[in-house]
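Q: Give me the 3D complex with NAP.
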Amino acid sequence: MASKRAASKRAAAKRVSVLGLGLMGRAIVEGMLASGHPRRALVGSTRTREGAARLARELGIAVSTDSGEVAAGADVVLFALKPPKTLEVARELGRAAALRPATLAVSIAAGVTTGQLEEALGGRVPVVRAMPNTPCSIRRGTTVLSAGARAGAAHLRTARALFEPLGRVVELEEKHMDTVTGLSASGPAFVYVILEALADGGVARGLPRQTALEMAAQMVYGAAAMVLETGRHPASLKDDVTTPAGCTIAGILALEDGKIRSVLSRAVEIAAVRAGELGGPR
Ligand SMILES: NC(=O)c1ccc[n+]([C@@H]2O[C@H](COP(=O)([O-])OP(=O)(O)OC[C@H]3O[C@@H](n4cnc5c(N)ncnc54)[C@H](OP(=O)(O)O)[C@@H]3O)[C@@H](O)[C@H]2O)c1
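A: Here is the predicted complex, encoded as C-alpha cells.
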C-alpha cells in the first residue's frame, strides 16, 4: 500500500527546475530528494560547466548552464539566484517567453517583490515569493510564502510542498517579507554571534572551548524548544529561572546594562530595511 502511494506520488510529481544551486538552491534540492521527489522530475542550473558537472555528480540530477533550457517544460521554476541575478535571468526568460503560462515561478531572492518578478517574466506567469533560512539545509528551517497577484491557493500549495520537507512553512502577506528576511533569514547569523559570545563567557571562566560551545548551542536549542513547545511567553519562562537574589537575575541585569533588547530588535529592523534595498528600485 505504502509503495503504491510512493509510486503514485512519483507519477504525480511536478517537474521542478531550480535556477542556481548555491547554498539555498542545493539545500532545497536535497530536501526534495530526501522527501521522495523523483530525480528525473528535478533539474538544476548553475553558472559554469565545471560546476554543472560537479553538481550533477553530487546531486544525481541533470544540471545545465542554460537557464532557458532548464526552465522550458517545467511545472515550477525556482529562482535560487542572488537578487540582481534573479531579475536579470527572469528578464531573459521573459523576453524568450521560455516559461509556459501554466508554469509557477517561485523566488527566494531577498528584496525582489512578486511584482518585479512578474514584470520581468513578461506578466504571463504566476509568482510565489518564498523566504527560507539556512537551517533548511538540515531540515529545521522556516520558510515564509507570499502569493503574487496572479497566484492562487493551488500555487501556494505547490510552493508549500517544495519547502515543507525543509521545516516549518508559514504564509504571510508580502508586505511582511522584508521584515521576515531581517528576522528569520538573517537571524541565524545573529544567533551565531550570541552563541560565540556565550561560549566566550564559559571559556573566560575556564571551560574548554568546545565544551562551552556545545553547551551554549544545546542550551539555546532547548530554550527555543521551550518557547515553541510550551507556547508560554519568554518573559514568564525567564521568571521561572530567576530566583530572588540569585545568579540569573544578576546576569540579566548585566544584559540590560548592555541594552541587549534594543540591540537585538534594532538588528532585525536594520536588516529588514537593507533587505528591502536588495532588489533595486521598486
Ligand atoms: N543564504 C541565506 O541565508 C538565504 C536565506 C534566504 C534567502 N536567500 C536568498 O537565496 C538566494 C541565493 O542565496 P545563496 O545564499 O544560495 O547564494 P549562493 O550560494 O551564492 O548561490 C547562488 C548560486 O547561483 C549561481 N549562479 C550565478 N549566476 C547564475 C546563472 N546565470 N544561472 C544559474 N546559476 C547561477 C552561483 O554560481 P557561482 O557561485 O558559480 O557564481 C551560485 O551557485 C539569494 O537571492 C538570497 O537572497 C538566502
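A quick observation: The longest helix spans residues 209-230.
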